[in-house]
Design brief:
Length: 109
């Protein structure tokens, strides 16, 4: 079954459910030819290994505390803080506390 993405103008809830952390439930909220919007759920002490994506990204911390390792340094994001990375920049993520973030990826053609 195909993943249901939000339609233009549709309300998108960002709060996590009670079992999201236990199941590492990240959800692609919307996707077009130009961007993808993801509600990223990161359990405490669970790493997302170093990787890179072709497009530019923003990561907005909504809950918890997220560490992003990129450009040879670590940046700690807390609720209401956002990080921007150019496309192709290797980066890894980990959560110091159970965390939820809004990840936007600008897709390249």
């Amino acid at each position: 079954m195909a993943l249901q993405h939000a339609a233009s103008g549709e309300l998108i809830p960002l709060q996590r459910g009670d079992d999201d952390i236990a199941h590492f439930t990240s959800v692609a909220l919307a996707k077009t030819g130009n961007m993808e919007l993801i509600r990223l759920v990161l359990p405490k002490d669970r790493d997302m290994p170093v990787h890179k994506v072709d497009g530019e990204i923003t990561l907005l911390c909504l809950q918890g505390e997220i560490v992003c390792d990129a450009h040879g340094k670590s940046v700690v994001l807390r609720p209401g803080e956002m990080l921007y990375l150019l496309g192709g920049v290797p980066h890894g993520l980990r959560a110091n506390d159970d965390a939820v973030a809004l990840l936007t990826i600008l897709l390249t053609s």
